[in-house]
Specification:
Layout lengths: L1 H8 L5 H19 L13 E8 L5 E8 L5 H10 L1 H11 L7 E6 L2 H12 L2 H12 L1
Parallel strand pairs: 2-3
Antiparallel strand pairs: 1-2
């Protein structure tokens, strides 16, 4: 997530892309929560939508998702891909844009990155090094 946010801060995304991405993220989350997408595996898992990034022309949307509990990622992505057209229509009923964006779904790996960072910082040798720096 940090990489994606850094590109937004450095001018990578316009305010319009960020604003529309957040509107689409909320609508997509609502569609998934309400079970309006009827893909084969959609009913069996709860999916978190952490971010939606829009292309400059707002015709492409990349949704970063993670199944609740972090299990069944491949099945969740497959189910989302199968229900993509239905999801697109349901989202467009909530968000009124000139063009209906084409959705791509990707796993949000930032949760894993946070866990690896937290694990690294909790190691004894790292804690020792951090204490040594504080004493200097």
């Amino acid at each position: 997530m940090a990489k994606r946010q850094d590109s937004a801060k450095s001018g990578g995304l316009s305010q319009r892309q960020l604003r529309v991405g957040e509107l689409v993220r909320r609508a997509l989350s609502d569609v998934l929560i309400r079970g309006e997408a009827h893909g084969l595996g959609m009913q069996s898992s709860s999916i978190t939508v952490s971010e939606v990034r829009m292309s400059p022309d707002l015709r492409q949307a990349v949704a970063y998702v993670m199944p609740l509990g972090g299990r069944g990622e491949a099945e969740a992505l497959e189910a989302l891909a199968e229900a993509r057209g239905e999801i697109r229509r349901a989202v467009m009923r909530r968000v009124h844009l000139k063009f209906s964006p084409d959705f791509q779904f990707r796993l949000d790996e930032t949760f894993d990155q946070y866990d690896r960072t937290r694990e690294m910082l909790s190691r004894d040798e790292v804690a020792r090094d951090l204490r040594d720096e504080d004493e200097d």
